[in-house]
Amino acid sequence: MLQSELSLIQVCIAQHSESRRNLVLAEEAGSRGDLERGCLHRALAFGQKIHADKARLTLEGLGQSLSSDGDMSSEARAQVMEELSSMAMTAATERQSLIESLILQIMKAAMNHSSLSKQRAQPISSYHVCQVCGFIAKDTPPERCPVCRAHAAQFDVVR
Question: Could you say which DSSP state residue 62 is in?
Answer without folding.
Answer: T
